[in-house]
Design goal:
It contains 5 helices and 2 strands; from the N terminus they run ββααααα. It has 164 residues and is mostly helical. It has one domain. It starts with 5 loop residues before the first strand and ends with a helix.
């Protein structure tokens, strides 16, 4: 048997996975990670661990008061899921070969810094870091790190499986 032909557990030849299938996996990983961790962020908001809920992502687009209710938080989580697809592709481009948890941690912290230090004060009506409070900062960093690890490790694992 040649090295390019591998057999799976049923004894059949395993074919190389086309990129569009891998592309779809990245979309699913990004959307799932965004929705999952923003809903957990909403739970942290409800339990007063943070002052910022997922509805903050809608600040540029929604002008009515509905965005401040439960529907706004769920719509914000869905919107974050869509944005997370783009961040998953960014991770794929930058860190796909990193096969450890550290790539996801670094990605999550960098993403947090972009959102809370640059985008947040300018576009999302997030207070400057000095006025957010320790609970909000620590909780949001943890959520972003967990998102980064979820997306990062999932994509790196799929990439490694595709390469072998």
């Amino acid at each position: 048997m040649l090295n390019s032909e591998k057999k799976n557990s049923t004894g059949k030849e395993k074919k190389k996975e086309p990129f569009r299938s891998f592309f779809l996996k990245i979309v699913v990983i990004g959307f799932t990670g965004g929705v999952l961790w923003s809903l957990i962020g909403y739970l942290a908001y409800v339990l007063n661990f943070t002052k910022i809920g997922p509805n903050r992502a809608l600040m540029l687009f929604a002008f009515d008061n509905w965005k401040n209710g439960v529907a706004g938080h769920f719509a914000g989580a869905a919107f974050i899921g869509i944005i997370s697809i783009l961040t998953a592709f960014l991770y794929y481009v930058l860190f796909k070969k990193v096969r450890s948890i550290w790539g996801g941690i670094v990605f999550g912290v960098a993403l947090w810094a972009v959102v809370f230090c640059w985008l947040g004060p300018a576009f999302l009506k997030i207070d400057p870091l000095g006025r957010l409070g320790t609970n909000t900062i620590v909780t949001s960093i943890c959520l972003y790190v967990l998102f980064g690890v979820f997306v990062g490790y999932s994509i790196s694992y799929e990439y490694g499986e595709r390469q072998s």
